[in-house]
Design brief:
A hairpin with a 2-residue loop joins strand 1 and strand 2. Helices cover 23% and strands 31% of the residues. The C terminus is likely disordered. A nine-stranded mixed β-sheet has the order 9-5-6-7-8-2-1-10-11. Strands 3-4 form a two-stranded antiparallel ribbon. The protein is an alpha+beta fold and 218 residues long. The protein is built from five helices and eleven strands; from the N terminus they run H-E-E-H-E-H-E-H-E-E-E-E-E-E-E-H.
């Protein structure tokens, strides 16, 4: 277990990231485009604790509420065999990068294996990976088409994944909207014109390429 001073610093970092996470990621849906394929990802408050590497005797929702309100205390977090202090320290060092998986150049990993689980997809900047799983209930039944951020791995996960793809676009939208209305990241080598129609149909008209129909007088 780390010292009280270490825990206080860990909580300070967690709070700093949590405030950005809440403002920029929670309540939005993100569309990742790669190799003509897409996945839709949501980041929920109740899953944030799993990304930090700490344990706490409270629900994920309560943990997040306590973090952003400044009420999380050093004696409320602990480390365990499953979540040791050394691993938590590594995760905390990478946690500030969490926001960047929604707005910068990253890779999509497919079928990423850990010692206990295989995640369908992962978002990685080469140094750390946000592991994603399907949105299912306790019986394994799919609840929505979205993927959920479940774990943060501080390692190069390429060798543990079946496939790796460069992300071409990241789009986002408010959770209640049908169409994606914001470009978060675009590979400068790509063109929206080249996207398949099924992807274009997911975008707001303002993001779609326009074709001029005006005729020039002769």
């Amino acid at each position: 277990m780390g010292k009280v001073e270490d825990k206080i610093q860990i909580i300070a970092t967690i709070k700093e990231v949590a405030l950005k996470y809440d403002a920029q990621m929670v309540g939005r849906t993100f569309l990742y485009v790669f190799e003509g394929r897409t996945i839709e990802v949501v980041f929920r408050r109740k899953d944030f604790m799993h990304l930090t590497g700490v344990d706490a005797n409270m629900s994920g929702e309560q943990f997040f509420k306590n973090v952003i309100s400044g009420k999380l205390k050093a004696n409320q977090i602990y480390f365990s065999r499953r979540h040791p202090y050394d691993l938590c320290a590594k995760k905390i060092s990478q946690l500030p990068k969490l926001i960047s998986v929604t707005n910068s150049e990253i890779f999509i990993l497919e079928d990423t294996q850990t010692m206990t689980f295989t995640y369908k997809f992962g978002l990685t900047d080469l140094e750390c990976t946000v592991c994603l799983s399907k949105d299912v209930d306790k019986n394994g039944k799919r609840i929505s088409r979205y993927y959920i951020a479940r774990s943060l791995r501080v390692e190069d996960s390429f060798d543990k994944s079946a496939n790796a793809f460069e992300v071409q676009y990241i789009f986002s939208k408010p959770g209640e909207n049908w169409l994606y209305d914001t470009v978060m990241y675009a590979d400068e080598r790509c063109s929206i014109n080249s996207l398949p129609s099924q992807i274009l149909n997911m975008l707001d008209d303002k993001l779609k390429p326009t074709t001029s129909t005006e005729k020039t007088d002769e």
